[in-house]
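Please fill in the sequence for the structure shown.

STRUCTURE ENCODING:
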């Protein structure tokens, strides 16, 4: 992240704003890119006075909202086959397991998954295309998308900007510590949401396992019942035969 911030500091402010909007916008369309790293680095850069925080936040919000909307349109047009192709192209980020977790979040939380998905790396990439593929009404999607994009962009930018300014003022001699504190503060804003998303995914996985065990238990019981029926049909009891001794036949009347 320090290398990204150093690289951004060599660019003109206008190029930094365009880069923030472009990277976050393409990421929101469904392509795995380091949008959060670019935003955090730009916000820390704003704390040093190289760029303006309001423009960084505005560029991030614009990229998030427009990118998600484009991803929604692509997902609605391409449907599940498009998601499957993305999964084959980016198996580490958009494989079947990741897609299943994202679908579970949508099924459980509805459009709120779009809002909170802006704070979770996986859903931030899949929210737009997945909402389109699942035919979520666009008006509801747009409201959740815009709210999540604005809160995420301005909240992250100004939180890191404020912490960075304070760190620069009080920790001039140990600027590396100020950077660490700023980064931890920015990542801490998403910790609770990520943890909640992981808990939801774990609970859904446990529920699926329990549901899969019920039929297998029923099949075992059915097999046992079938065994008892066969035993009953053959006489009700099984005869114990010693080795080398022929079984005793019933008396004939």
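FILLED IN BY: designer on duty
SEQUENCE:
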């Amino acid at each position: 992240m320090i290398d990204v911030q150093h690289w951004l500091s060599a660019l003109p402010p206008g190029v930094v704003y365009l880069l923030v909007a472009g990277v976050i916008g393409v990421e929101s369309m469904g392509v795995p890119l380091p949008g959060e790293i670019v935003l955090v680095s730009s916000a820390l850069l704003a704390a040093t006075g190289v760029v303006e925080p309001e423009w960084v936040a505005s560029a991030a919000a614009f990229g998030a909202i427009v990118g998600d909307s484009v991803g929604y349109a692509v997902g609605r047009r391409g449907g599940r086959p498009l998601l499957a192709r993305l999964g084959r192209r980016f198996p580490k980020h958009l494989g079947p397991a990741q897609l299943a977790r994202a679908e579970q979040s949508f099924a459980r939380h509805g459009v709120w998954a779009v809002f909170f998905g802006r704070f979770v790396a996986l859903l931030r990439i899949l929210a737009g295309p997945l909402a389109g593929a699942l035919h979520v009404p666009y008006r509801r999607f747009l409201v959740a998308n815009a709210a999540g994009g604005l809160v995420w962009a301005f909240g992250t930018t100004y939180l890191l900007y404020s912490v960075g300014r304070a760190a620069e003022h009080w920790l001039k001699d140990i600027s590396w510590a100020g950077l660490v504190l700023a980064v931890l503060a920015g990542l801490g804003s998403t910790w609770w949401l990520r943890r909640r998303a992981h808990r939801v995914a774990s609970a859904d996985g446990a529920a699926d396992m329990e549901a899969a065990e019920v039929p297998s238990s029923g099949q075992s019981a059915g097999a046992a019942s079938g065994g008892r029926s066969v035993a009953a049909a053959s006489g009700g009891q099984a005869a114990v035969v010693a080795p080398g001794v022929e079984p005793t036949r019933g008396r004939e009347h």
